[in-house]
Design brief:
Layout (H helix, E strand, L loop, with lengths): L1 H19 L2 H27 L14 H29 L7 H28 L3 H30 L4 H28 L5 H13 L7 E10 L2 E10 L5 H19 L3 E9 L28 H5 L11
Parallel strand pairs: 2-3
Antiparallel strand pairs: 1-2
């Protein structure tokens, strides 16, 4: 749908440019080319990411979404640079502008459609944890805001008759477009390099704190890797050393169930059980422990800092 809408809007914007010869409108038209190409690549990426795991891709095909976002970011950046360069050129070689009123109406309508479609895609992207849909949606939303600024600039030109304002408006939004593209590239590189998603980590930690059981003495060495909409979560869980294998399994299953219920079935949880040690006692909230070697001191809240460390929690800094 986004690709078809993009094609229609691109045709309208280029029509508006050829009628008006406005550089500012040209910025919008050139970005529409990016919208169409990026939308087509995003569609292919979503199709590929939906493929099930296989022997060659044991974690699935979700990483292609980060590549899609990177390609979209690169295209946006190139479009912004072209727009900026064209604006400078037209300062040296001015071009007459015609029928701005028609161009203004077309740009305003196209911007409203892009913004609405962008909001829809971002909402769906968050629901399905798809960076491709979110990237495409945010791009369309930024295009909508750009169109709003463009409309304001065109109105100023119509009121004042100062034609060179057209180039200034185009340069400003060329810079905005470049910034948007670089931001997308930065996000895609972070995903490919498995950079920690702090927001997602905090959401998971809050979930575990809220549903904490007495037997869960601590959680450490917590890591989250994203494969498109799939989450791969690794963690070590410190449990009472005297639990039998079935009890350990049940505790880990409970954690898995809580996390999967919150984040969805596309979550893969690998948990490693660790036995408690004497330095765990001061922070252990288990009241009925018959083998406690140290008195309870205080409950330790799990935070981003202590759950990411590869060491058991304890009053003393020991593994």
């Amino acid at each position: 749908m986004a690709v078809l809408v993009g094609l229609a809007l691109m045709t309208l914007k280029f029509g508006a440019y050829f009628v008006t010869q406005s550089n500012a409108i040209l910025t919008d038209a050139l970005e529409s080319i990016v919208n169409v190409i990026a939308g087509a690549f995003a569609l292919y990426s979503l199709w590929l990411a939906a493929h099930p795991r296989d022997e060659n891709h044991p974690y699935g095909h979700g990483k292609v979404e980060f590549i899609s976002a990177g390609v979209e970011g690169a295209l946006i950046t190139i479009a912004g640079l072209i727009i900026f360069g064209k604006s400078i050129f037209n300062f040296v070689y001015p071009q007459e502008i015609h029928q701005l009123n028609w161009g203004l109406v077309i740009v305003a309508a196209a911007g409203a459609v892009n913004f609405g479609l962008g909001c829809f895609l971002v909402k769906k992207g968050k629901q399905h944890r798809s960076i491709t849909l979110q990237a495409d949606g945010r791009h369309l939303m930024s295009d909508g805001w750009s169109s709003l600024g463009l409309v304001i600039g065109l109105i100023i030109i119509l009121v004042t008759g100062i034609v060179w304002i057209d180039n200034i408006v185009a340069m400003i939004f060329g810079c905005v477009i470049v910034y948007s593209g670089i931001k997308l590239i930065r996000g895609s590189i972070a995903g490919i390099m498995d950079e920690a998603d702090v927001g997602l980590m905090k959401e998971l930690i809050d979930l575990l704190n809220t549903n904490r059981h007495d037997n869960w003495i601590d959680i450490h060495n917590l890591r989250i890797i994203k494969y498109g909409s799939n989450l791969h979560i690794d963690a070590h869980v410190t449990l009472p050393f005297y639990l039998d294998l079935q009890q350990v399994h049940d505790e880990l299953e409970t954690i898995d169930h809580i996390v999967t219920e919150h984040f969805g079935e596309q979550t893969e949880f690998f948990l490693h059980p660790d036995p408690c040690i004497p330095t765990s006692c001061p922070l252990c909230i288990k009241a009925d422990c018959s083998v406690r070697q140290h008195a309870f001191f205080q409950r330790e809240e799990w935070t981003l800092e202590n759950v990411m460390k590869n060491k058991k929690h304890g009053k003393e800094e020991k593994k």
